[in-house]
Amino acid sequence: NELLFFEQVKKIRELGPSHWKQPPIIFELREKAKARGLWNLFLPVDSAKLAGRTGGGLTNLQYADCCEIMGTSNHAEFAAEACNCSSPDTGNMEVLARFGTEEQKKQWLEPLLDAKIRSAYAMTEPAVASSDATNIRTSITRDGDHWVINGRKHWITGAGNVDCKIMILMGRTGGPDASTYRAQSQILVPMETPGITLVRPMETFGDDDCPKGHMEILFEDVRVPATNMIWGEGRGFEIAQLRLGP
Predict the structure, then answer these.
(1) Contact 165, 85 (CB under 8 A)
(2) Whether the predicted pLDDT of 81 surpasses 90
């Protein structure tokens, strides 16, 4: 199966980025994983309870053992993809499970839990040391019933996949006088929103990580409904820390 995965990915790569999606073997194995109860193992019992959805029924500690086993596959995320436990979808689903509104969960969490769509997490920026989230400079400006987004992101994992339909974007809503840790927000941005340009797939030592991709993305006057804000304005840094925590 692992060799078949690489053979199928090679054919997808030859077709070009507009054809990037998971190879057929992943879809076949997902059905087997569901049948065996090896599905959404990443979603811990506490997050599942908050979301009112069903995960794998494990604690984080128990899931750690599963990660150790899944991580022995080659490609590294091959087994995780088959069990719907690959990044950045897992982190995004936990954000929606813990902090999303019921409307946001129905629209985005449920199809992600069923692997009907993929997602991306747009945080890193080329102009600043954005591993420190307080440096983020992509602007999110209120305009009536909408938020308007302007900025540039890069190394945005998963955005190159044609099944990626939603991204969680980290940006700045606070002005120059805003508190250091209350100036950032996280917001849901559908990939088909006008003003989004996928500039290029980025490479590491010549590897483009097809069919997932790590994209440079330009946001120019991207308008999304005010209801797309996650957990409220100014809570982006808080969400980022909780997303990475237990």
Answers:
(1) no
(2) yes
Looking up tokens 């097809």, which residue turns up? 210
Q: Are 159 and 198 in contact (CB under 8 A)?
A: yes
Tokens of 236: 């982006």
Mean pLDDT of all residues in 135-155: 97
Taking the C-alpha atoms of residue 212 and residue 156, their distance in angstroms, rounded to an integer, is 10
Nearest to 94 by CA among 113, 107, 80: 113
Over the chain, what is the mean pLDDT?
A: 96
Q: How far apart are CA 33 and CA 19, in angstroms?
A: 25
Task: Kindly report, residue by residue over 32-76, the tens digit of the pLDDT.
Answer: 999 999 999 999 999 999 999 999 999 999 999 999 999 999 888
- Could you read off the pLDDT of 198-246 as tens digits, one per residue? 999 999 999 999 999 999 999 999 999 999 999 999 999 999 888 887 5
Distance, CA of 104 to CA of 189 (rounded, Å): 11
Angle at 235 between CA 229 and CA 236, to 5 degrees: 80
User: Is residue 12 packed enough to be buried (19+ CB in 10 Å), middle (13-18) or exposed (0-12)?
Assistant: middle
Question: Tokens 């494990």 appear where?
Answer: 58
